[in-house]
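Q: Could you fold this chain for me?
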Amino acid sequence: MEIKHSFTVLLVEDSMSLGALYTEYLRCEGAKVTHVNHGEDALTELTIWQPDLLVLDIKLPDMSGMDILQKVQSQYPDITVIMITAHGTIDLAVESMKSGAFDFIIKPFDAKRLSITVRNALKQRLLVNLVANYEKSLPKANYMGFIGESLAMQTVYKTIDCVANSKASVFIIGESGTGKEVCAQAIHHAGNRRDKPFIALNCASIPKDLIESEIFGHTKGAFTGAIANRDGAATRAHGGTLFLDEVCEMELELQSKFLRFIQTGIFQRVGGTKEEKVDVRFVSATNRIPWDEVKAGRFREDLFYRLHVIPIELPALRMRGKDVLLLAQKFLKEYNAEEGKQFKSFSGEVKKILQTYHWPGNVRQLQNIIRQMVVLNSSAVIDESMLPSLFKSDSGNSLAQIKPVISITRANQASAINSRESLAIDEQSRSKNLQAADSGIDNVEIIIPLWLSEKQTIEAAIEKCGGNVPKAAALLDISASTIYRKRQGWDELQGAVSEN
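A: Sure. Below is the predicted structure, expressed as structure tokens.
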């Protein structure tokens, strides 16, 4: 294994002559060496930069090298430390190795002895880095509050790792119960703001006449009941992260004030005249399609672009494969402990049911169902008899009820779509089918464009579900966002047909 030819060393040696000698030894190995004489100087250097190797004398004029070793291990654990001393004993060597030193060299030593130790230290460092990089490339089953090793979740984890230290605004999109606040907290705790506040506000749960005060705070007497000055979320989140859940519920008038706050970091409290400035990282979330809200005029386009810098889409639970069982086992263990029960696992049939269920409420629904089964039953294994009634009678778990609706015949195709669009599309299809007939294809009258058949199927499912797009998407085994995108495409196609 080859070691790096250029590496950095901080040499802490109080003897100027020995320091110069060891510096020369190390430079012959390809090191860039910085030599200091005192322990305090070494600690100061470490706050500015961190070397690959620290060659540390135990006996220094101002402090013990062992004290420096302990500080390095707690604050800079990636630095490899080699201890040196002229007063070596077996006990001291053992103590230094237990404290985290890579090796212990007794003075006097020659260039060869130092060279062997340095090369071994660099080889170990290389191996540690290789293992760490390999571990990072492996699927994570647990990540910053998330449970799941599916490819969809691995993509989420990597995105969080990439954006954690940035100040760029993040917009989290996902159905209710997919873990949007968990994602926001993960972004905060994985980044360099982890030691600062994380403040979360749910814009849908705060009364509209109070949300401005909740964000910006208010002064005494600003409104009835304002008996004292109060800090808002913006002030409390200074230096940290402000998470706005269900941000699309924010009133348009407040959106304009919030836009200025995002642009400048400056705001005024309700009832106040003094401007305040804070440093805040913005993370927003919604279970809606934000661009649809912009097109509908319910969400400002300029605010959308300010918040939607880095989008993260959380997958629905039904799209996460075996993650369902990982989550179920975690919840089973937690509620076992809380309720004093003895459940160990799920039966094979229950595992199959949990994995095939469509989970309209996502992780939150799974969590509630596991708790319900634990509270209401006592056994070692969760079996099929313990499942809630919705698993036995809920027709939403299959397409049985909507199949008759989506089996649309040629005779009633026109009623499944807008009449004007139907005539135009039907005429195009009939023309193409006649051309196909000339090529020898039989029964061309039953052939319709694939996209039109798909449109009829999706719209029939939505109608059967009473206009509930997420529920229809679950039954069709696609995401709600897919339906919204397809609808947009159909609208564009209808417009093109109308122009022609």
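A (continued): The longest strand covers residues 7-12.
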